[in-house]
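User: Can you predict the 3D structure of Aminotransferase class V-fold PLP-dependent enzyme? Sequence below.
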Amino acid sequence: MISDDLLQRLRARFAHVDSDPFQGERVFFENAGGALTLKSVVETSGFFAAIPDNQGRDNVASHELVKVIAKARADMAEAFNAPGGQFFVGESGTELLFRLISAACLAAGGGRVLGSTLEHPATRSAAARWSEIAGMAHVLVKHDDSTGTVAAEHYLPEITENTRVATIIHCSPVTGMGVDVAEIAKEIRKVSPECLIIVDGIQHAAHGAVDLTALDVDAYVISPYKMFSRHGYGLAWIGPRMEAIPHNNLLKGPEKNWEMGTRDTGAYATLSDVVDYLDWLGGEVSQESDRAGRIRAAGEAIHAQEAALVEAMLHGVGNLKGLADMERVNIIGGIDNPAREGLVSITVQGVDAADVVTRLNEGGVRTHLRKADHYSGNVLDPLGLPGCVRVSMCHYNTRAEVAKFLGLMQEIAAEG
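Assistant: Sure. Here are the predicted structure tokens for Aminotransferase class V-fold PLP-dependent enzyme:
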């Protein structure tokens, strides 16, 4: 685990780490809904919000804005080990997934769109809509209800030579289980080498390293507010094959431009803040001499820290029972699941999930209710669950916060 001293120093870099202006002191276990924001991101956002100039003008301020954007793109390319292509921002992660999937379907010229039932409705909805418009078959591979994830073995029977577009989720925001994107992409490439593979990395990005070269995909989308930045924009990377296909663009404009209108320079600048933080953290947990190595080390440390927090939540802290030992508590995806990324979703026998969330909130622990609706029904309906409690951690959370949560859960489970 990250040392206690380092943990306190890194927590000091985040805004509202243990309290907020509305509730006061609270434990923040709602990171899947949006991670804590770096204080540097808050400062950067305020600075650029006051700048009246736009990019692309012939003046000093405009030239500097262009440099800021170029630096942010280079920073993200290094952080994500991107093999060429380009990064660009849009309205949100959802909007970018719709835009990329629509362009891929329209460029495919028929065939199949392949996805899975584990995916977020942003991807499933976009694939359903645009496959129909493009005259393509939309095939959904069924995920494993017992483990809460999907694997290459589930995709294999449905991978065909006419699979032209494929979508993969890197981690489920409901079960918290990661997906082996590289293995699935490898199997798709064996059968359909030219298939455009689009990845929803929104849930995964804050919980470990992203290596786009190793993944061998064509597009990857994140929501920066879930990766220590702020709300108001999404980020996409597209590889050379994807950036060259026809897409929405201005007539006679640059052919490979994927941005729609003038974007917020401050949004780009905050991405550099995130990469700077990862660089700093990597330097604290490793002896790596180069920046890329430090960023990789940060991803490894984040993953290890969150795995230790999950272990404590499942199996106990001190004399407090873990969730696995509470008789009325059911853990979605199983107890010791190696695919889990900092998130535990639970139900309590005899207590409505909404009531559990309320009780925890009243005790000063922020969690979230997932209902069997258009967002989470794809996971909860097959389990026969009307809802669940999502407890999502990040590397800046502590064992003491886990202990507070477990103390409250013992009371709730006993009453249930």
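The mean pLDDT is 96. The domain at 43-275 is CATH 3.40.640.10 (Aspartate Aminotransferase; domain 2).
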